[in-house]
Amino acid sequence: MGHLVGKDLYRELGRKIDNQPSHAPWNDTLYAILKELYTPDEAELVVKMPYGLATVGRIEAITHWDRARILKLLDGLCEKGLVLDIWIKDEYQYSVSPLIIGIFELTMMRTRGELNSKEWAKLFHTYLQDKDTFYRANLGKGQTITPMRTIPHEETLEESAHVEILDFEKASALIDGARKCAVGICSCRHEKLHVGEKRCDVPLETCTSFNDAADTLIRHGMAREVSREEMRDNLARSRDLGLVLCADNVQKNATFICHCCGCCCNLLLGISRFGYPNIVMTSNFIAQVNKDECIQCDSCVDACPIDAITASNGDCPVVNADLCLGCGVCALRCQSDSLKLVSRAKRVHYPEDTFERIILQSLEQGTLQNLLFSDPTRTSHAFLRGFVGGFLKLPPVKRALLGDGLRSRFLATMRRSPN
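Above: the chain's sequence. Below: its structure in token form.
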């Protein structure tokens, strides 16, 4: 690859991050973000690291750098959330953080030392508020496999034998089954606070995580350990505040719940401000108004954080089925108890676990080849990334692998493949 310096180095770093499961299109603001967050040595190491998870031994073999130097740089990168360290099979494995969910969130969750949070917030805000950059790159082709899914407020579900809610769809069940819980600062609210756009009274400390994610955030000073009882209190507070609950988009081993408001959450703003309803997967439920009981108070219209409910001329509110997340925030505010969540006509398919979500998201975003041929220093891998990547991007191939017919066999094959 040769020795890179200056803007060329950060341009290569931008390409590396853009080739993750979620894209990070290059512009001057991204360059400023990367130059602010990464030292030149850190940037060079990340550029040379494999795609996906890798042990220190593999990173050493690929980079030909001294192990002590690698470990020192990795320690700094992990403390900043720019590289993820995950304990697997009695050792840490490392992965380059994507921009979302990753660099943005873990940067704005940091609380240690003298931090330049205000400057970071301005840079991220400028980058994320350009709908033609991040949003279009990740959602502009109708992509549907996203990192987050909506969880309904359980008390807003219609009491009916036809309404079934599974454990992974219940925030209460995620809390009850957690080995460890943690709470930290919401990255979106922290960003909006510094740029003067936080219009709500919601506290900053609302981001909740579980198990391995909680371990990581606690270890790096980005969250504090809390009891299940405090997690339940946070959940009750979010219900009272009318916040949308969003978890990671998996059925097994969910690692976090975000407590989102319409004025701060960048994902909800992606829907209401920029028109990308597919940025968050809906729950298996949808809001429905009982017109016989509705008193036209329009509380649900005001409560909906993404403007999915409208009303005019004293008529009953109308729910936009193409936008409704199935969160239940509207039903929490209904004064006549005439609005409830009911089952959607067709159940939503969620990835089984994080492995499946990353594979499907990478396939949809056109970056799966990077996980298959992950060594950035080998010419053969570069050739195969180009060749296989072009094949996987063919619309018929992508539709077939993402469709119901081949998806299960495709994912089973990927699970059997060596790392």
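The first helix runs from residue 6 to 18.
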